[in-house]
Write a structure and sequence with these properties.
The complex is a heterodimer. Chain A is mainly alpha-helical. Chain A contains 25 helices and eight strands. Chain A is about 70% helix and about 5% strand. The radius of gyration of chain A is 27 Å and the shape is globular. The mean pLDDT of chain A is about 85. Chain B is built from eleven helices and one strand; from the N terminus they run ααβααααααααα. Classes of the chains: A mainly alpha, B mainly alpha. Strand 6 of chain A pairs parallel with strand 1 (about 60) of chain B.
Chain lengths: ~675, ~325
């Protein structure tokens, strides 16, 4: 029995057991065993993933488990990476969840679903046949849907979010199902090895259909444009630790699906597939971060940032496919390493950010940045955790995203001179998209951290906020530690990524090597995050000592703020998140198209006297309005029309039946 | 890490730290003379710094560590860039940090620290300055990255030392459409990033128009000294980058004392010349309205993008 089998076995056993405990234990005693159980599930997944990345494999079949096609599971390097990431996220979330559950989330159903959701996410990358994959995928969708709806009694918006999520995730699942069934129709059976063998015999059209259909399904799960609409709805409304699981682990499985189908099952493909992936990625990255920059809802902002980060991952994935289709394995390896490293980094910092946001939500009851502020005094640990996450997310030096975006830009920059036509246009635009994303991400996270946590409290709830219980802090601490390690020593996870990209791209040499200094193999490029921080700290120490030496020896004095001599103004005069984003919103006016209206109410006595002025501004999702609303309207109109057909008259229904049978008979006669 | 890099790094640091206030003094003097004033002399910024360093430091009530650490972080990030970028020598003291992306991100980190400090004061002006600064940086950073990328495509590396060395070996490349487009784009974003006219007026204290000053209103004493010093250093560093990316001649490629001396002299001359030109330009420029600035930056972004496209079409296969 190797690590993979042991880990997965432990995960399945712990998952089922903790779900059972959740159903049997009384409410007060429920969160602790379930949290511990979920952490064991996560640990099992992480161990199995580590084993798979170290080269161990595992393959099991249960012919009797599922009717008709049985269930088969196999773990390779690619599965291993996603197992490890999901497991790692689950550990931090489970520890956090023990404390967070007291927040009214200790119901039987929610508690039982959490370990099952984690388990389902672990099973998806291990599935080795179309049937098994679809069942696991559906299990993941259903358990997450139940968790999204956990707080439906408290807010009406939860139900709306749940409906969006349910519809979109199932439409995505249908697309994946049709795509994989088309592929399976050309193969001997529905197992992945058979699909791999049959990939060479597929016609380009059939392969293209399979890829595009599965891409649609997987990008809807990853929250990539234009199928992102569920994400900024479901992430804010789900309980925060569930948002963390969904945003840091579940969306990754969309990426896994694209990599599995595109690179592994179909064995790469023509350049246009990957240009499509890259284009979708670039669009999502810029659009996602723009929406995040405008957003004043803390969790919605983080959800939009997930769209952005998945976009960056898709840029890497698309570039890797593009280079591979052009025969450049070196650059394909670099781009793939960038994409996978960003998956890991994103999982770490998004877990941290969502958990910190949950901590804020618990303490203040608000997600609205315009009502927060000044949390630093009441909640120092949460503040620093969020600050660390924000630093990591904004691609600034001692942050995790900095390293992966550097890798991504390296791949794009080296890809430019080597290739022809389409790439010459795509690569500069992709570089510009990544660069624009980096700039906007900085503004977004300065807003989130500066307005939400620094400054003075803008509401009494924020002023009276107290720090979360130690269990929640421990969960955040785990995610924070992962962020720090990934930021300073990305070489800790690079061997794992190298083994995955070797398995996929077929190049024996890892794309990136080095412990302290990361060096690209095959192309020029080196970066050392650790040396950078060391240099920064050393220079800061020199400056600190130097200033101490020459400056006045008086201790810093605290005084009331000068504020241009106006004196202490109330917190109402502070810049809010909305006002902070206003200049950016004005700059991107044509893209985001904000809606504004002003209602002026006059006194009844005279229209010259104004009673009240109300100003409302909203930044709706423009894409949603252009793409989704027409479709929804069409369906609504269809429903309205169809209503006239069914008026309750039995005669009419019998008539329908009669004419349908007649029509069918005529049709049969004609076809024959 | 080699001897040339270490010597060069220390020289560059000393030059930038000591010379930045003099550069500001010189620019003010040029402006004063052109406007028909006598001016305070080149050494005035140094005298200001000395005075500020002797005053006590005051932190507003309710501010925290972010506010206290920001000046130090701002000045350190700039000094690290001065340490690693190719100003006097082509070698770098800490070569894996002399990457284009790392340098741009380091400078952005300093800006972010200052913006957070502005927000931390909880005053309307601090927030306003931070919001404006972040809007500008969100537009500046892409242009900065894309335009230097246009230069790095033909070298095949984003290492600043490699870009400068390649320009030294192949002077013909410097006079190409790529360089010209990139130089104009870089020039515009450097003006925006360092808060000079027409984007921001460094000598204004009119609340409605200011960007940089609004964030630093609450600093006093040695903190203010550090912030002012850092902003002078940032200007020097940016002008130095602009100078050496396009006109690298004179930079030292060996550790011989004469070469280093020539390197120092060339760097000082180039930065002083660029600073003088900037000051002359500022005499004739009026400040743009805040919401006209993005148009300027979008224009420079387009130029940078064109530079990348041109660099592809002009790239020689290697």
């Amino acid at each position: 029995m190797n690590l993979v089998e042991a880990g997965l076995g432990a995960a399945v056993a712990a998952g089922l057991l903790s779900a059972l405990l959740a159903l049997t234990f009384p409410r007060r005693m429920r969160p602790v065993p379930v949290g511990v159980g979920t952490a064991v599930v996560g640990a099992g997944g992480a161990v199995a993933g580590a084993g798979a990345l170290a080269g161990q494999s595992c393959s099991v079949e249960f012919p009797a488990l599922l009717p008709l096609f049985g269930a088969s599971f196999a773990v390779d390097e690619l599965s291993g990476l996603f197992l490890a990431v999901t497991g790692g996220v689950a550990i931090a979330v489970a520890v956090y969840g023990i404390g967070y559950a007291r927040h009214g989330l200790d119901g039987r159903c929610v508690q039982a679903m959490t370990p099952l959701f984690v388990l389902a996410m672990l099973l998806v990358p291990t599935a080795d046949s179309v049937g098994t994959f679809l069942v696991c995928w559906e299990l993941m969708a259903l358990t997450s849907l139940v968790l999204v709806l956990a707080e439906h009694r408290r807010r009406d918006t939860v139900v709306v979010a749940g409906r969006w999520y349910a519809v979109m995730t199932h439409l995505g699942a249908v697309a994946i199902m049709i795509g994989l069934l088309v592929a399976a129709g050309h193969a001997a059976d529905d197992s992945f090895p058979a699909l791999r063998a049959a990939a060479a015999t597929l016609t380009p059209t059939a392969a293209g259909v399979v890829f595009v259909l599965t891409l649609a399904g997987f990008t809807s799960k990853a929250g990539v444009l234009p199928l992102h609409a569920w994400l900024p709805r479901a992430h804010p409304e789900a309980p925060s630790h569930v948002s963390a699981l969904m945003s840091a682990a579940m969306v990754n499985l969309g990426i896994y699906g694209i990599a599995r189908v595109g690179f592994d099952l179909l064995g790469g493909g023509p350049a246009w597939w990957w240009l499509l992936v890259l284009g979708l990625g670039a669009l999502s990255a810029v659009y996602g971060i723009l929406q995040a920059a405008m957003s004043a809802d803390l969790k919605r902002l983080l959800g939009n940032s997930t769209t952005e980060n998945m976009g960056l991952v898709l840029i890497g994935l698309g570039a890797a496919g593009l280079f591979a289709s052009g025969g450049d394995r070196v650059l394909a390896g670099v781009a793939l390493a960038a994409a996978l490293l960003h998956v890991i980094n994103h999982a770490a910092f998004k877990t941290l950010l969502f958990l910190a946001a949950g901590s804020v939500l618990r303490a203040t009851g608000s997600r609205d940045l315009d009502e927060l502020g000044g949390l630093r005094t009441g909640m120092p640990v949460t503040t620093w955790c969020f600050g660390l996450g924000a630093l990591a997310a904004s691609a600034l030096p001692p942050g995790t995203a900095f390293v992966s975006e550097w890798l991504l830009l390296q791949a794009l920059i080296h890809g430019l001179p080597a290739s022809g036509g389409a790439t010459a246009i795509v690569m500069p635009v992709a570089v510009a998209a990544v660069a624009l994303t980096a700039g906007l991400a900085v503004a977004t996270f300065v807003k989130a951290f500066g307005v939400g946590f620094l400054a003075r409290p803008r509401s009494s709830a924020a002023a009276e906020a107290v720090e979360s219980p130690p269990g929640m802090l421990a969960g955040m601490g785990l995610a924070g530690a992962a962020c720090v390690v990934l930021a300073l020593l990305p070489s800790a996870v690079l061997p794992a990524i190298a083994s995955v990209s070797t398995a996929i791209s077929g190049r024996a040499q890892p794309a990136v090597s080095g412990v302290i200094t990361l060096r690209l193999n095959g192309v020029a490029g080196a970066l050392s995050p650790l040396l950078l921080i060391a240099a920064l700290l050393a220079v800061a120490a020199v400056f600190f000592a130097g200033v101490r030496l020459i400056a006045a020896r008086r201790a810093p004095r605290a005084a009331r703020s000068w504020d241009c001599g106006a004196g202490p103004l109330p917190a109402r005069t502070e810049y809010t998140a909305t006002s902070f984003a206003e200049p950016l919103q004005r700059v991107f006016d044509d893209v985001v198209q904000p809606e504004q209206d002003i209602d002026v109410t006059h006194h009844r006595e005279s229209s010259y006297l104004v009673h009240a002025v109300e100003y409302r501004q909203r930044v709706p999702d423009r894409l949603e309005r252009r793409v989704y609303e027409p479709v929804l309207k069409l369906f609504a109109a269809w429903g309205e029309t169809a209503r006239g057909l069914a008026n309750g008259s039995m005669h009419r229904y019998l008539g329908y039946g009669f004419y349908t049978v007649c029509g069918l008979l005529i049709l049969l006669v004609v076809i024959r | 890490m080699n001897a040339l890099g270490v010597i060069g790094g220390i020289l560059q640091c000393l030059l930038v730290i000591g010379g930045a206030p003099l550069l500001i003094g010189m620019m003010r003097q040029v402006r004063a003379r052109l406007e028909g004033r006598a001016g305070a002399g080149i050494g005035q910024p140094w005298r200001d710094l000395r005075k500020l360093l002797r005053k006590e430091s005051i932190a507003p009530h309710g501010t925290g560590e972010v506010f206290r650490v920001a000046p130090l972080l701002l000045v350190s990030t700039t000094a690290v860039v001065a340490l690693v970028a190719p100003f006097v020598t082509t070698a770098s003291a800490v070569s894996p940090v002399a990457d284009l992306f790392a340098v741009v991100a380091l400078l952005a980190l300093g800006t972010v620290a200052l913006a957070l400090a502005g927000l931390d004061t909880g005053t309307a002006f601090g927030g306003m300055g931070a919001s404006r600064e972040m809007t500008i940086i969100a537009l500046v950073e892409p242009t900065l990255l894309v335009s230097i990328f246009a230069l790095s495509v033909r070298v095949g590396s984003t290492d600043l030392g490699a870009i400068v060395t390649s320009a030294l070996h192949d002077p013909a490349r410097v006079i190409s459409p790529v360089s010209l487009l990139a130089a104009v784009a870089l020039g515009v974003v450097i003006i925006a990033e360092t808060g000079r006219l027409p984007v921001d007026n460094p000598s204004t204290h009119l609340e409605l128009t200011m960007v940089h000053e609004a964030m630093t209103l609450e600093f006093a004493g040695r903190d203010l000294a550090l912030v002012e010093w850092a902003s002078a250093m940032r200007l020097t560093v940016f002008l130095g980058l602009l100078a050496n990316l396009f006109v690298p001649w004179g930079i030292a490629t060996s550790a011989a004392p004469l070469a280093l001396l020539v390197g120092v002299a060339a760097f000082v001359a180039k930065v002083a010349l660029l600073g003088g030109l900037l000051a002359v330009g500022e005499v004739f420029a009026a400040k743009l309205r805040l919401f006209r600035v993005p148009e300027l930056l979008a224009g420079s972004f387009l130029l940078a993008l064109l530079a990348v496209a041109a660099s592809f079409f002009l790239a020689q296969p290697h």
